[in-house]
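Incident log, support desk, overnight shift.

02:14 A customer reports that sequence design results differ from what the structure should imply. Their input is reproduced verbatim below. On-call engineer (initials T.W.) acknowledged and began investigating.
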């Protein structure tokens, strides 16, 4: 487990805007409670509370990955309009303590779904 610091800064802040995630025109998630993770030189990532996602459109997959800063990630595919977007979502169900705020949130690959701030 690595800790965020000057060599790898990480911040989590509430996003004051409404965040909407769609796949092929179908709303997958919409929230005013998104968290924005800024990590080192990576693009910011929106984490949406599970309660604000349509979990009926998601199927857990077997894929897992490990981040030395956040912990183990699990993945979901999205089913929308008869299409399946494999492993389009990741989540840290038991993140490391420094990233505990991400518990219960979902993040989306922007090359698989549309993520927009709408207000």
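02:41 Re-run completed on a clean worker. Output:
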């Amino acid at each position: 487990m690595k800790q965020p610091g000057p060599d790898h800064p990480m911040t989590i802040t509430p996003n004051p805007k409404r965040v909407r995630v769609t796949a092929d025109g179908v709303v997958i998630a919409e929230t005013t409670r998104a968290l924005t993770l800024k990590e080192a030189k990576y693009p910011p990532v929106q984490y949406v509370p599970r309660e604000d996602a349509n979990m009926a459109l998601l199927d857990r997959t077997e894929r897992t990955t490990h981040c030395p800063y956040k912990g183990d990630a699990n993945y979901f595919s999205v089913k929308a309009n008869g299409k399946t977007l494999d492993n389009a979502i990741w989540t840290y169900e038991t993140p490391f303590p420094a990233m505990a705020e991400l518990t219960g949130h979902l993040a989306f690959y922007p090359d698989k779904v549309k993520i927009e701030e709408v207000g």
